[in-house]
Design a protein that fits this description.
42% of the residues lie in helices and 12% in strands. It is α/β, with parallel strands linked by helices and 314 residues long. Helix 6 (182-208) crosses helix 10 (298-311). Strands 3-2-1-4-5-6-7-8 form an eight-stranded mixed β-sheet, with helices on both faces. Bound molecules: NADPH dihydro-nicotinamide-adenine-dinucleotide phosphate.
């Protein structure tokens, strides 16, 4: 049953292609971006029908902007996709959000954490047979998989959460309270995305009936996510993923996979982290990918939840 879905970060990449796939399946998409103008232009370039789209201003890095955007949303939503992200591996010093938090944790995790909390009521109001919250995770933050074991610059690790506990503001930049590593800050934020999904499932699936899932669509090695990496990396990385690891997927296929997790009856189970076997093939089968202890430990998840609640002001 096609419904209305809100997707964050649709100016390019996975979010834009998921928008396209869902519109083609009959859904209405509300896009949430820091530039609704650029989101509209990107949708136009894909020839998407304007009447099935609504573009709202939402800067995920700014909690006030998330709140303002939510206030103006309709009171009923059938699905939400948390897709927007920044990856800034070349930063020498942490960049800060308007609230003073390290920018990748602020944008990728805290903005989405607040967004989902604020949208729960609207999802409850929906009469759609399968209401879903879908969060983009990644292989590099799951040490159960080979891609999550690569120690460059360091594996995702929230340590003792002392940075979280200290409030994440200057001089703190990392969840662990340890020195700033920009590439790791991204991985840590994505680990928080997967932890949040698991905790949303544990706390809220039973009473709300909402399906909470995360996914790794494959390595979409040629999206603008990698715009802040060295130029040579931007050439070599897609080639390496296509020819050596076999992990590469096209942006269009990644978009179809997100659309499946939002809309297909086979993806109605809550608490699952979806991945695909035979990642490059169009008919590669989805499976429930086991997550690392770091992503599933209930004690860590409870603390991440409580501390995130405080940091977003709930
Ligand atoms: P892109 O850089 O193409 O897309 C990121 C989107 O997020 C853009 O639309 C960007 O908009 C938006 N965005 C960034 N900052 C903000 C903000 N403050 N407020 C609102 N929107 C913002 O990257 P991908 O498509 O590759 O990544 C999408 C998701 O997929 C991410 O969550 C990523 O972690 C995940 N992922 C990607 C993989 C890959 O291989 N590419 C693999 C696994 C997961 P703007 O134009 O304004 O910057």
């Amino acid at each position: 049953t096609p419904g209305t879905v809100l997707i964050t970060g649709t100016t390019s990449g996975v979010g834009l292609n998921a928008t396209c796939a869902l519109v083609k399946r009959g859904w209405t998409v509300i896009t949430a971006n820091r530039s609704p103008q650029r989101a509209a232009a990107a949708a136009d370039d894909m020839d998407l029908p304007k009447e099935r789209l609504q573009h709202v201003l939402m800067d995920l890095g700014d909690l006030d902007s998330v709140r303002r955007a939510v206030d103006a949303l309709p009171d009923r939503l059938d699905a939400v996709v948390c897709n927007a992200a920044v990856y800034k591996p070349k930063l020498k010093q942490p960049e800060r959000s308007p609230q003073g938090y390290e920018i990748s944790m602020a944008t990728n995790h805290l903005g989405h954490f607040l967004l989902v909390q604020l949208l729960l009521g609207r999802l409850q109001n929906s009469s759609h047979p399968s209401r879903r919250v879908v969060i983009l995770g990644t292989v590099t933050a799951n040490s159960k998989e080979l891609g999550g074991k690569i120690p460059i610059p360091a594996p995702a690790d929230l340590g003792d959460l002392s940075g979280f506990e200290a409030g994440f503001k200057y001089p703190v930049a990392m969840a662990s309270g340890k020195p700033f590593k920009p590439g790791k800050a991204y991985k840590d934020s994505k680990l928080c995305n997967m932890i949040s999904t698991q905790e949303l499932h544990r706390r809220l699936h039973g009473e709300s009936g909402i399906t909470f899932t995360s996914l790794y669509p494959g390595c979409v090695a040629d999206t603008p996510l990698f715009r802040n990496t060295p130029k040579a990396f931007q050439t070599i990385f897609p080639w390496f993923q296509k020819n050596i690891t076999g992990g590469y997927v096209s942006q269009a296929l990644a978009g179809e996979r997100v659309a499946d997790v939002v809309a297909h009856p086979d993806f109605a189970e809550s608490g699952v982290h979806w991945s695909w076997g035979n990642r490059q093939k169009k008919d590669g089968q989805q499976f429930s990918q086991e997550l690392s202890d770091k992503a599933t430990d209930p004690d860590t998840a409870r603390r991440v939840w409580d501390l995130s609640m405080q940091l977003v002001g709930l």
